[in-house]
TrEMBL record:
Coiled coil as UniProt keyword: yes
Boundaries of every B30.2/SPRY domain copy: 58-251
One Pfam family named in its UniProt record: SPRY
Coiled-coil ranges from the UniProt annotation: 30-78
Record organism: Coilia grayii
Keywords, sorted A to Z: Coiled coil
Listed name of the protein: B30.2/SPRY domain-containing protein
């Protein structure tokens, strides 16, 4: 049998052991709580970072939206001026389409009318600001698009280059070129179905785009426009019967 002293010692040892276990459990719990706290702090930091990133993306998207709205406000309702159309051109009643006809139309030969090349101008001219419009060229094998000054030569053979106050690009039988001096061959990724024309009159800029993919085609820069300018269209050849169509604008390129 154990003596009274041994029993007391055993009790003391048991109490010490229990106290040690309790302290160990508290230390473990404390360490676990600190680990959880560290994880929470890391999660909060990540959430704060994600929030900042989302706010930055939202700000960028808002900026793009505002820029697009500003650009869309620069769109103009371009229509064709029948008083300028070459007699071989046929215009739609709404002034949005033009094609080359087989026979000469019975129209008066006024000073405004082109009598040699198959040209036509837009009705509205511009002497300041910016404007943008698009032309469907699907199915066409020959066309010239751009802008021209008001006082261009309407009679006889006059080349469509900046020398004669035309700023335009051309497709002729599969070959694209900018009507610069000298002309500039254009190597395009694809065959545009719609061509966008953007003009910043005050900055002296005329830019052309593949309007379906916003691909930049060519720009005339540092242009000193001498006077009011007009949208310019040309299409010729009886084998080129698909019309040029001034089309509604759904997107607008961002310079």
């Amino acid at each position: 049998m154990f003596s009274s002293g041994c029993c007391k010692l055993a009790v003391v040892l048991v109490c010490v052991l229990l106290l040690a276990v309790t302290i160990a459990l508290r230390i473990t719990t404390l360490n676990f709580s600190r680990a959880e706290k560290a994880q929470l702090e890391e999660r909060n930091a990540n959430l704060t970072h994600d929030k900042s990133q989302l706010e930055a993306e939202l700000s960028a998207m808002t900026g793009e939206r505002d820029e697009l709205q500003r650009r869309l406000s620069e769109l103009v309702n371009v229509t064709l001026d029948p008083d300028t159309a070459n007699p071989h051109l046929i215009l739609s009643a709404d002034g949005k389409q033009v094609k080359h006809g087989d026979t000469r139309q019975n129209v008066p030969d006024t000073p405004k009318r082109f009598n040699y090349f198959a040209n036509v101008l837009g009705k509205e001219g511009f002497s300041s600001g910016k404007f943008y419009y698009e032309v469907q060229v699907k199915g066409k094998i020959r066309w010239i698009l751009g802008v021209a000054k008001e006082s261009i030569q309407r009679k006889g053979s006059t080349g469509t280059s900046p020398k004669n106050a035309y700023w335009a690009i051309m497709l002729e039988d599969g070959t694209y070129e900018a009507r610069a001096v000298p002309s500039v061959p254009l190597s395009l990724k694809g065959k545009p179905q719609r061509v966008g024309v953007f003009v910043d009159y005050d900055a002296g800029l005329v830019s052309f785009y593949d309007a379906d993919c916003w691909h930049h085609i060519y720009s005339f820069t540092n242009v000193s426009f001498p006077e009011k300018i007009y949208p310019f269209f040309c299409t010729w050849g009886n084998d080129n019967s698909a019309p040029l169509i001034i089309s509604p604008v759904y997107n607008c390129p961002i310079n």
